[in-house]
Structure formats: C-alpha cells, structure tokens
C-alpha cells in the first residue's frame, strides 16, 4: 500500500530582495521516514526547513499537511498543525532555567497535566541518554549535552515531524555519532518522521531513507557529488568551464559567466591508460578513496580537484585498482551539466 | 547645632515607639507608590516590549522622546495632571484633586517612562533565538513574547523597582496633586517638607531615616538583580 504523504510542497517560491532563494515545484514527505536535505551553503536548506516547519512563509505556493492546505487555515488551526511538528535549530538554545523546565516548556504551553509532563520528560531524557539531568541548570551543560537536551525538549512533544537543522554542525566528533544514533532511535521507536539538513553527504547516506538535494534553491535529481562552481568561458567557438587556474572542462552550453556544473559519477569512464575517443575531457589522477555504495564501487579520484566516479564491482575487480593507483578519467563535454 | 541633635533624638524616639502618625504616613506612601508602579508596569512592560520588537515609522524618535521623558521634573507632571483634574479641568467632574487617586495618577505617569525605557533596553538585549525557540516548540505569538520577557526577567524587575524608587522619593507630584492632607494624602516626602518648614525637625528626620532605609533596601535589591546578568 502506498504510504500517505504527511507533508507536501507545491510550487513554492521564496525571494529575498527580489532574488529567488527557493523555487520548488513539488516535494512530498511520507510518514515515519528519515529525509536528509543536502546542499552547499546558501543552497536554501534552512529556508526550506523553516517553511516546512511553518516558521517562515513562502512568497507563493502551497504547503499541505495530511492533505490539508495549511495557508488556507485560520491562525488557531495553523497553530494546531504547527504543534504537531517541531524544529531543532542549528545552534542549541536553552532557556535560562533547569533542564526540567526547558523540556517542560512545550508541554506546559499545550496545557498538559503535570503528571503527564513529568513522565514525558523522563522518557525523552532517557531517549537521548541523559536520565537524571532534570535538575541541572542549562548553563552547566556541555555543547553536546545541550544539543541532546534540545532534542529531548523536541521529543517530549511527541511530534509527527521532527525537523533538525544541521544537527551535528556545531558539536565535536565524539558527539556526532551519539546524535546520529539518537536520530535513528527516535525514528525507529516512535515512528516519527525526521527531516534534517546537512552538508555532510556521508551522514545523509548513513541516516536517511531519502536524500533531497538542493542547489541554488532548486531541487536537483542527483545527490550533490561532483558539483563545482566556476566560470564559463567562450573561446574560439568552444566553451570551457574554468574551475581552477589549471583545470578546465570542455562543456556544451549557451551560458556565460559564473555557474555551477554537475557531472554524474556514472558518466565518467575510469581507465588504467589514456585512450582516444570522441569524449572531450580526459584527466590523469590518483585514487584517494574507495567505498561500496548500492552495489557500486564509489571512487574518489584526485585530478587536482576531487571527482567521484561510480563503477561496477566487476570492473573494479578486473582493473585491479586500489588506493593510490593512477587512473585516467574520461567524460563527454555533454556530460557536464550546467546550472 | 543642638536642634539637630535634639531632632535626631526625637526621631529615634518616634521610630522606636512606632509612632502611629509616622507609620500611617509610611504605609500610605508605600501603598500609593506600589499601586502606581503596579499599574505603570501593566502598561509599561508591554509597551517597552513592543518598542523593542516592532519596527514602525518614527521608532527612533519615539525612543528619543522616551529618554527625554525620564528627565521630566516631577512638578511638571504635577502641573499637567493638576490642570486636567482640577475642578475647572476636563476631568474635574470626577473630583479627583487632593485624593490618593490623584497621587497615584501622578506617580503612574512618573514611573511609566522609566519602566518603558528600561524594559525596552532589557528586551533588546535578549537573543532572537528565545522567540524562535518558543515558536518551534508550539508557542503562540503571545506565549513567545512572554518567554522573551521571562528571559529578561531580572532586567524587567529592575525596571519596575527603578520606577518604584522614583515614586517613593518624589515630592512634587504628591504635593501638588495630593495636597499633603493629614491622615489622607500625606506621603513621607510631603510630610518631611511640611514638618521641616513648621520646625518639627524630629518628625522630619524620622521620616527621612525611614525613607533612606527604604531606598537603601530597594537599591540593594536592584544591584542584586543586576548582578544576575540578564
């Protein structure tokens, strides 16, 4: 059976000073799944998550919660929907009071009975691995603990959707693993839909059922690998994309000036030696990373910049390549997609 | 010289014997100033809040006017309210002049600018994250506003206490609007001024000492609140 969509976005546009920062024609989120919104800085991740969590409104477009158009609703009904979701900001913020009062805040403003509040606080602090922290003052907590209390505060509300804006951007390595495990656990135990932003692709892969990739405020159908910013140059009826001083790709486009390009990791041919073909781009490089991903081998090759290429397991075996192996990468000018 | 020493002796006797008239005046002063500052807080704290969070045309000028209002002499407030509530004034019908209510109105207007101005700067110092966090946790706009005021609670409390301090120590408005009527509208400050003029030095000194103790307590409390670093 097809799962019911919990949240749907249609034709949403958001401008700041007449600059389009978000332009999404359709996006939907299903119940009890984990979504990662990924993209470079300034790609519109935070704007999107603020709109989804009803903290911000787009300049045009529709947002549906369980098939109800949210922007048509009265303030009271919007509040009801807003109370079914919560957002944890990038930098954890705690009110200047005890952990207990912090976690209790959302429940109290919903008018929950005291005994329920107590029980829910216990449960959610346990969920983030901080049982017995109730009486601590918020300013006595470490960064990682504060982040977990903030998540507990959100969990106590038993939301249908939990939004996390860059949940691990401001904490140390040791705590990243803890937070990631908590996110998995929340989704697994309470069936809460989790939507988080990140610019760490490997984190998105580790946690998410689906990855939503944003670039310049637009959805892109691929995960943001091999995305580069540079300048398009037209020279003798040829078009080049300059990434760095000594690296340029042959490209087919009418555009000029600064742009983003994307090369599908599957479009790159990996060979041990240079070969002659119709493809306009050919570079020598060295393999710096190898990993397995969805039945494919993912290679990161340093050609002056890091390019990601996917090859099959059989090719990988036959070529006998390893980390440090020198390879040649070849791709067509038309494989370089320009935005 | 001896009249000063005698004055102090008499003052201590009056205080230690819990003189009825003295304490009636003290209680009246405290009551009037408390009611006035309470009413001024009810209006002033929300106004200070709105002034801090809302953007509107002429905001900067409003803040300048507000800061200027902090320096309005008490007699000017007395004069303005007097002209409004005296028999011939537009509110003369209510017969408020020389009543405790008139003193309360005067002190309300005196403490209002202080409370608005200090609340405004207290709220301005609070992180916007307080409001945003409250909203993400499902607060209504009003609940979110309350969360902000709560984060600024110590600074807002010191705004209220500063307003009270001005009320209890002022003499101009209480004199002009209350009329210094014995047993009815006599405050500590108006009594000191009258009794001293009458040569009742001990009575004045006794009230003066009590007034100083009250302001000392207020200031200790205020510096305690300010040390909580809001």
> Which sequence of SSEs, written as H and E, runs from N to C of chain B?
HHHHHHHHHHH
In CATH, the architecture of the largest domain in chain A is: 3-Layer(aba) Sandwich
The interface involving the most residues is between: A-B, 20 and 16 residues
> Mean of the pLDDT scores of chain A?
90
Written description of the protein model:
The complex is a heterodimer of chains A (339) and B (230). Chain A starts with a strand and ends with a strand. In chain A, helix 4 (114-127) packs across helix 5. By secondary structure, chain A is of the alpha+beta class. Chain A folds into two domains: 5-220, P-loop containing nucleotide triphosphate hydrolases (Rossmann fold); 227-338, OB fold (Dihydrolipoamide Acetyltransferase, E2P) (Beta Barrel), CATH 2.40.50. Chain A has helices spanning 45-52, 75-82, 99-109, 114-127, 143-155, 173-190, 201-207, 313-319, and strands spanning 5-16, 19-30, 34-38, 60-65, 68-69, 85-88, 161-164, 193-198, 210-215, 218-220, 227-235, 238-244, 247-250, 257-263, 269-271, 281-293, 296-302, 306-312, 326-331, 336-338. In chain A, strands 6-7-8-3-9-10 form a six-stranded mixed sheet, sandwiched between helices. Chain B has helices at residues 2-16, 20-53, 59-69, 74-85, 100-124, 128-136, 141-151, 153-169, 172-178, 188-198, 201-227. Chain B has one domain (27-189, 216-227): MetI-like fold (Orthogonal Bundle). In chain B, helix 5 packs antiparallel against helix 9. Chain B is 78% helix and 0% strand. With 230 residues, chain B is mostly helical.
